Each structure stands twice: as structure tokens, then as C-alpha cells.
Amino acid sequence: MKQLPLPSGRTIPILGQGTWNMGEDPAARAAEVAALRLGMDLGMTLIDTAEMYGEGGAEEVVGEAIAGRRDDVVLVSKVYPHNASRAGVRAACERSLRRLGTDHLDLYLLHWRGGVPLAETLEAFERLRAEGKIRDYGVSNFDADDMLEAAALPEGGAIAANQVLYNLVQRGIEWDLLPWCRARGIPVMAYSPLESTPAEQGPLLARPQLGEVARRHGVTPAQVALAWLLRQDGVVTIPKAVQPAHVRANRAALDLAPQLTVDDMALLDEGFPPPGRRRPLAMR
């Protein structure tokens, strides 16, 4: 699978697995674990989670799924803003490591900005990295102005990724944030690549242009939407799936991506126009 380099020189796959809403229903746990394991078998070895998801429940699901396979996985987790102080980051990270059953994270992100000074959070991340508890650190839900502020801080030059809402409907980052990150070799991780809920997916998957491209290739609109993201330079995509067929469909989108033609991409731009001005960062 294609890899993107981080500023540190380490790499991450461009297609991974999300875990938002996992770990909330004990009855679903076996299916969630099985889905993550299937995804790993299919090469989707980047797994994204957070202490917020299920209040640690998703991390426990991930820990069970990767047991015995930790070395095969690129593991990403996120810290709550209210835990982002010097002492709070350390305690939160250690709790996450216990739930995940590992001694280190490959990438640790600040979930969104809160009241703790950003310099303090980055300093805490740097200490964790020096101790080997995390390999790289980054941010989530940071707009272009936030990234400029972060980059000017002493530890800001080591920011390795920015995870934001990005999909065909939500293209605002293409105006300024995505070009800024690309120019500095900072991957953007696209969460909610198909929007978050069936109701929100309606405006995305029902657009006729998306359906037309899907018909051309004999695939689903959702696969085209993922493939479009996988064609974007400097972008990592982390769809969530629990049903085995959904997991396999997500993986198949990676093979579809290079098959999208110039005409396909132009038709998608017609149905989902790129931004014509700066927009506030969209968040879920």
C-alpha cells in the first residue's frame, strides 16, 4: 500500500481504519474486533482511535484486535483538550497505552484546541516522544491559522499530521489548509470520508455525478467517494466499518483510485465544487 512520509521520516499508509463510535455497545464488540482484524488482513494497518471514543472503549476494542500483531500496525490515538496539560497529557497517554495493550503510540494527536496553551501541550508531546511512549505527534481539527501558530512554537516543527473533516461535500480545506500542509510535508488525515451518519451521507451519496462515475466503473458511490480522497496528494483516509462487506469495499476503493479518469474527476468537481473562497474549518 502507498505510504506517506511524515516529517520525521517515518511513513503511514494512505488508507486506514477509523473507530469512532466503536466500544460503546458490548454486544457489538466481537464484530468490531473482527472488522479491524479483517481490515488488517487486507492491508489497512493504520488504525485511528481516541480516548474520547466510547470513553476509552474504542481503545480497548483496538487493543483486543491488535493483540499479537502490534508490530504490523500504525497506531494513532488522540488526547482530549482538557487533558492536554503537561501532567494531563502524560496521564492520558499512559491510560491509552494500557487500554491498547502497547508500550507506544505511532502518532499521538491533540483532538482539538482547548484552554491549555498549545505550547504546553506540544512540550508534553515532545517529552513523551523523548521517552519512547510516542513516535510522532500532531494535531486534529486545526485550521490554517492554528497551524501557523503551532508551527511558530519551539516544538511546532515536529508536528507530523493534522486530522480534519474532509470529503467531497466538505472541501473547504482545499483553499488554504491543505496546500499549506502539502508544502511542508505534513499529511492531512481525512476523518468522516463518507460523512458521519446515514442522514448526513444522503447529500453525498445521492448526487447524480457520483452515481454516474460509480456506474462507469461498476462500483458503489461510496467507493468512488473514498477513491476520490485516495487520489488527493498528501491525504490519509480513515473510513470506519464494522460489516465485513463494508470493510472489503473500503479496501477495494484503493484499487479503484488510480482508475478514475480525468473526466471522472471533472464530473465530481461539477457535482461537488471546490471552494471559491476561504471557509471556516468544518468539524464533527
Provide a short characterization of the protein structure.
This protein is of the alpha/beta class. Helix content is 41%, strand content 15%.
Secondary-structure map with pairings?
Elements: E1 3-5, E2 11-13, E3 16-17, H1 29-41, E4 46-48, H2 57-66, E5 74-79, H3 86-100, E6 105-110, H4 118-130, E7 134-140, H5 144-151, E8 159-165, H6 177-183, E9 188-191, H7 198-205, H8 208-217, H9 221-230, E10 235-237, H10 244-256, H11 262-271
Parallel strand pairs: 3-4, 4-5, 5-6, 6-7, 7-8, 8-9, 9-10
Antiparallel strand pairs: 1-2
Helix pairs in contact: 1-2, 1-10, 3-4, 8-9, 8-11, 9-10
Task: Explain what the structure shows.
The chain has 284 residues and is of the alpha/beta class. Helix content is 41%, strand content 15%. The protein is built from eleven helices and ten strands. The protein has helices at residues 29-41, 57-66, 86-100, 118-130, 144-151, 177-183, 198-205, 208-217, 221-230, 244-256, 262-271, and strands spanning 3-5, 11-13, 16-17, 46-48, 74-79, 105-110, 134-140, 159-165, 188-191, 235-237. The chain has an eight-stranded parallel β-sheet. It has a two-stranded antiparallel ribbon with strand order 1-2. Helix 1 links the parallel strand 3 and strand 4 (46-48). Helix 3 (86-100) packs across helix 4 and helix 9 (221-230) crosses helix 10 (244-256). It is globular. 46% of the residues are buried. The model has no long low-confidence stretch (mean pLDDT 96).
